Model the fold of this input.
Amino acid sequence: MAIKRRVTTVLALSITTALLAAGCGGGESDQPAESELYKNPVTLTWWHNASQDGPGKEYWQKVAKDFNALHPTVTIEIEGIETNQLQRTRLPAALLSNDPPDIFQAWGGGEIREQVDADYLKDITDLVKDEVANIGSSAEIWAVNGRQYGLPYRMGIEGIWYNKDMFQRAGITAPPTTFDELNEAVTKLKAINVVPIAVGAGDKWPAAHWWYNFAMRACSVDTLKKASTDLDFEDPCFVKAGEDLKSFIDTQPFQPNFIATPGQNDPTSANGMLANGKAAMELMGDWNKGTLDTVAEDTEALNKFIGWFPVPAITGSAGDPKAALGGGDGFACAKNAPAECVEFLKYIVSPEVQKGYAETGTGLPVAKGAESGVADPALRSVLEATTSATYVQLWLDTAFGSTVGNAMNDAIVAIFAGNGTPQQVVDAMKSAARK
Amino acid sequence: MTSTNQTLNPAGGAVAPPAGLRPARRNAGRAAVTRRKWYEIIGLTAPAIVVYVMFVLVPMGFAFYYSLFRWRGVGPPTDFIGFDNYVMAFQDPIFLDALRNNAIIVFGSLAIQGPIALGVALLLNRTFRGRTLFRLLAFVPYVLAEVTVGIMWKLILTDGGTFDALLRAVGLGGLVQPWLADLDIVIWTLLFVLTWKYVGFAIILLLAGLSNVPQELNEAAQIDGASWWQIQRHVTLPLLGPTIRIWMFLSMIGSLQVFDVIWVTSVPAVRSLGASATMATYMVDNGFFARLWGYGNAVAVILFAISFVAALLFQRFLLRRDIEGAITRKAN
Done:
């Protein structure tokens, strides 16, 4: 799934393509129902997860309005629903009762596999070839057995967000590139009496992501791919990941009582600690810039001190040091959605709309030709690292599906709490795969 | 309709011993009245019964049906596994932790809220200036929304939060604990929050009960030379019995099903380790978040069965006299 996004692609060319695509609205020749498109008025219902007032939500409103201006026959009804509610209850219930929205949030990985098995989604393979080519291999996360069922609009790898001022005060000259260097940095930061790393273990996944990254380093890319498709966790590297995590936790790099610290969204969260100068580092995805902004007391100061570096490598391990863990957000069309749904999906991932999305600062775009929309320097380094990663592994809990993912996260949290073992994580994953 | 009944009835009257026309007609009238009463009952309760069946009984039936499947909520349930989900629940140490936590909350609430509420209610039942204000204050936590209470206490009890600062300010800094992070302490912290939240309900209920205790009995006891304590012990308390028992019943059922305050105050990690999970939070964590819908339904059925049996036992042995004739048969 190597992401080969060429920043050097001639920008003008992509923008021209974008204008053409947007202007002609699906004028490709391989369009089967071409003559029927935009003939009759249709209403598309759209469920996305930008539920909170802010640039993300406003942007989708604008996108829907613009699309309607281009194609007056298409009216779009938007509902923004909080992620957990959307993913855990609203969508499953709507799909199950055969009354789904036409276009809706899709997270890829294990979940989209299950949805395809249940025949919920529209196969859009032949309609979105150009878009997939422009997005690159990350679109594979929304494909099942070689068929495309959804497209991403946001994608990024995770890394360590850090406080440059604290690093300087602690005498750390360059961001750590290996775990040995990271351990050194932790020691130096402790010496100046700051919390080296904040982790929102209370929400489980921020803690689990540390284990994922140790697994990225311990396991070969082939092992990881096999684990995602076959739920095969026999390889000893998964136990090794837990052992490495345990010895890392034993160096006490995290804030005290991290087991009850929430991940983001309030000042007492791990996010809040980093944003307000109470911790030096945090492992988090590309969306972090936006969430840090909302909890920061002084956004200006935050923008000055915040930096980003990729998760360090472990010397002599089986994993590919340039492989990274990441994930994204996408949309899919319901099986019986009108053909206009696919056109709207294509519009969302067109470079022009993607550029506007990037400008909101809520996440990194996926389409080539949208890179210039990323202004923030920290986000720029995430984008560069994402582009140069040799392999991007989807978040393991998403890749393995909710059942295995949840059991895995619970068992990892137990290691953090000091009453779990590396073997128990693998046992929990295997037993959940059978549930 | 009535006339038909009347003409028909003499036949029945013939069976009866030498009854004249009058008793027969009276019987006929009574039957008609009974029938009309039933039409009224059916007519008036039908909407409620339809709603009850549709939104309570049918979903309960579905819950039980789904609980027999291995089902992740994608597509219709097809993988029938009998009672495996139930076996799985009782083999999961976290579910057993949840059961234990529910037990702590049930008995802890009764043991702590009962005496406090009784004491406060007895005090507030006396006449003094500002009584209404105090009654109002005692009831405020109960009126607040659960989520508000949860977030409020989460912020107060967080590491280095208001509560810790308060302890340090009064020189009790040594007592500071990770209230919501220590896996052995958190359930007691939550019991405290629940007590704070619900004790007002017990107080208001007992105050209502107290207002039903006739003043004359107090006066009579006073004339007999009983002290305030003796009056409370021998007159008020026995008469308050039914109210106390009803409160115990409501508190018990509420404690078995407690969800929102726990869900908001305690973070997912601590819940998933079993330290603060209750049956209800366990159900949601597993049903929705682990996407084990069949299993989640099994947990729901277990929760229902436990609450139902507890309710029946309580009614059978403690509420017997209070609800005599309603559910149990009238003694004699």
